[in-house]
């Protein structure tokens, strides 16, 4: 199978997530990394490009150079997919011209910083017909796909109550004042947008909730806090939710929970059973049934849904992790591109789409709106 | 040491919790069970008394008979402590005359069904000077005492965020329509009061939260649901809380979470560390410190607080459970009685008091008030 | 139901295990503790008796006094059961005359220190017809009974491989030189017999293995070590076993494993599934079936064997522990006594018997024999 | 950094482990996969090469073709490293000529099938000076490196007892009779050599034990079994070990443990503490210290050894798994090659070497020798 050509904007060699994108892209030998404008300054962009061994003529100083440079190439030599791995505030301005120029896109989350931008992006994607995937990478885990499949199959009946948590501890202190790069832009409204923790990780929690349950949020009541002195964006959120089928949910997000590593967890309770999954031990999923039985399902084990097995690479007991889940986003985009070009008859799985991205941005806005009004209820009229 | 004489009201031999009280009372050889009015009908009271081997002349048909019968005995033959193990609605009417007659009391939770009753009880206790313990038995676990001691010692700094959950699944279906006795009265407003799950187990969660953190609740926003059709009281609650030092908390309670057994858990995050404890594995407590270290403390292990070790009976690795925690309430009441009589110089530990009971009833009322107003914020002006 | 009268030899108020026996005895209101010769010196025996509130005329200075004193009483006032809670070396000399005098016995493990003594005890029990239970208390856990029931039912097919471990860390250092009482006698051949760790806890592991699997040991190869300098008995054992159906087993025992609390665990692999249980989390049992499914069974949950439920007191999620398992030995002995007297038609469960005790002593001897011969294979011809 | 050119022998697109090698090789962008003789028949070799997108002129029908083809290329175009991913019986005949021709090698385990072959390989490696890594991939996990570093630092004192287990369930039935490819060759003495489970996974356990402890095996007593009818090689092993410092160990290996996925675990007990690690949850390591404290160390967390952090790619809580550990072997070989060529001043970590391979083969032989002699002790005089 011909490899697709990948270009990257942001994600230079001092950004943890850039390396994840590159590893995820090549894991299945579906992409080769050929071009990049890897940092926010020309100097660092060039340095990163050299350090990562890109061909000289495809190390770009800026994303505009890359747009021009790649457009100038014959169609069959251009990058097939552009990954946008920058701070949130520049996603839209970068993505729009690339979309308009017909490049397929993988975009970090939150997709953009306002619903207005999000709508423009969605319109552009529809207009141009490019494949556009948003990096809600946690939805790429095989056992998350299994959870969704079990919900769809009716294994736990009608959903009543959902608990989704995303707790970290790395911002419990004012790390941003030390020059730590990851922290600095995430707590800066100019670069992160109106959401702190709620934007950085809350949107993952929201996507996990809606993706697995298949339900929409209809109302929310959010209490946001900035616990660390002088921090301008929230670092903690507690949110009550009402879902489209009458179910209730509680979504909590925090980056000040000392001792928590990257604890994203989902528990779904239906009238016929329940499901529980934890990102830090992603290879298993617990299902309880109405008869009171409790079973641990293992990735690679028997009896799983086809989409779960498609998302899984190794036999049971051989732990898969974060990179493999991420790679499933890349693989889904690759499949989408090949399908669009007629090289693949069917698409075995879909990445999170621009519509998931739109919904994520709306979520952040509604949460901030609720919080600013004193943690009061906000109706929620997004459509999916 | 002379054993104290225990009488019991309710808790007949078809009630699970009655057997727990009796086992807890005798575990440390501090009580002998000598009298009872064990059920709501005279016939069943007598049958239970005989089945449990009480002396003929102390098997009472009704609590009123017991009050009279015991008062008639010479002071040194009377029951020293009366346990009230009935549905909530009759706690007050039983407790008040016993208190006024000078009997020490152990009372199930929620203490009573209205704040008005609670105030009367508190006044009666103060007037009479009896020892009065409320069965917030989960506070009796050694590692809960350790958590409280660690908070007091400053081990986790100033508390910022607390998560307390109490999730069960046994009422996920309409068990109450099958004649199951435990279920029937708990979902009946006439016997349970205004709270369903929030009264039955939410009050445990509230007591655990305030006891361990030492903080007061200042405001709450509660979303209550009755998921099971035709159920008149809540079987699920999601509550946002604001605490006295500016901390935030999320308290969730549910009895419709299929697969959950009796999952009471507490996670406390301070600016200097965090604590996590789970009732289903009560012999351990996790502490994380600001330096990122994660340590598992074991009951019976080294370096614990004196009150933790006092509450513990067995060496580490020899699991203690529910009954031992319950027995710690009984032992604390016994110590209180002996101290009042001058037979004990100091009291090594305190049971949950009538003031905890008052606070628990207020909590239920505020939660229901908030929920009825559409899950809006209610200020919280109880004092402890 | 009339309570049985319990007398105790050893287990004075400075012995942890004495308090466990007393709590276990009264937990179900089946016994009252009325008499004792509670220590190895008359002074301490009398002091313990007073401290524990025994009636003056039944506080005995020595076990011989107790034997005489109780025999002199009218039959219906005598102790019904005598618990022997002393170091191993005096079990036989105490038990024999009590058995011959018709007293029912509960005896700590290992039952005696030599097979010769064990045979005498077994013969005496048979001759006298008394009820005799050995404190293999771990077999009293409900989920251990469930494991045995599942094996009998064929749920895991023919057993192929068994792993049983009993690892502790409390003797990793030379605690015995500090005067610590528990340690002192356990490492002293004069009081403990020929086995150190293998006698103290290895015999529990052996009993758990054979009780749950229903298989006999046919050969063993044992490597014993005394890791702590100057310790005269083993503190660590690694043993290969061959079982009666061709299954193999590995039994490891250690008291020098720093960090291990009281980690007794059992894993049984059959050709149709497997079972796993751990004493430190005793309320659950894992079963895996040939189809690859993994299920967690919970004490108090649905679908368990009658003997499991009979051994269980609390609803699921309300942790039971060490004392409840211990109490199941006491309850089984009480049932046996009542049955013998015609007061109970059937016996719902059996305690570990004198034959389990015989087998345990033989196990220790074979292990030591193998180890002394350089960890070579020893055939095993005990019969049960 | 210039990428190294990788060729592969075996590991065609129907072999799970081939895909793992390829993913591991490219994860860090240190290798590009350019050549292969990917299967045991020319037809399947060519088909796999095409399917995997190798350049036409480097898809070889046989390893001999590849040897010749690559030798003919100019030195700077040749493959830098050859991965040997075939059944065990052909490792030696393939590796030797490649070594002699100066190619660097990554070889699957067990390295070869006899000690005679192993010695030849070791001699060839020494003669030629190539870099030679053996795929003891579990040693590549960061927290395994941390365990080794902690042992070296004295954190747990002198090692006394080690438990190493490697339990799987996938061969509990006669899978080999169904044509399943993974099973077929592993149970066939002609292709696997004299060891079944002991060769396939026992050698991993042995390597983990000796790598982390730094101790040599001095004697062993091994009981091997073939539980599945008609299976010619062992599928289960129980082994007692004596180590070079007087420590004892128990090593158990099984492929008939239904319910076990890929459960490799290591517990090391010293006189100053203990360590525990489990491959299925590889991102954490438990350390207990002599003071009784129990701490969970997290990959990516604070206070770890430099070699641990070097082996880690993601922040804490972002699970790394099997492929990352495998990739650490590839990265170490790449570093070795670059260092040999003067392009890297120091080598940050070493892969398992030909000497580890020699030791692994000797282990299998000694185990089989012991088992054949009736599970008797065999002295162990290999040197490392």
Account of the protein in words:
The structure is a homotetramer of 384-residue chains. Chain A has 384 residues and is an alpha/beta fold. Chain A folds into 2 domains: 4-138 and 332-352, 3-Layer(aba) Sandwich (Rossmann fold); 139-316 and 359-379, Dihydrodipicolinate Reductase, domain 2, CATH 3.30.360. The first copy, chain A, contains 12 helices and 14 strands. The first copy, chain A, has helices spanning 16-26, 42-51, 63-72, 91-100, 115-128, 142-153, 181-186, 189-192, 197-213, 306-310, 322-340, 354-372; strands at 4-10, 31-37, 81-85, 104-107, 132-134, 159-167, 217-225, 236-243, 248-254, 263-270, 273-278, 284-289, 294-298, 377-379. In chain A, the strands form 2 sheets. The first copy, chain A, has a 9-stranded mixed beta sheet. In chain A, a hairpin with a 5-residue loop joins β11 (273-278) and β12. In chain A, α4 (91-100) packs parallel to α5 and α6 packs across α9. The longest helix of chain A is centred in the C-terminal third of the chain and has 19 residues, at 322-340. In chain A, 63% of the residues are buried. Chains B and C meet through α1 and α11 of B and α1 and α11 of C.
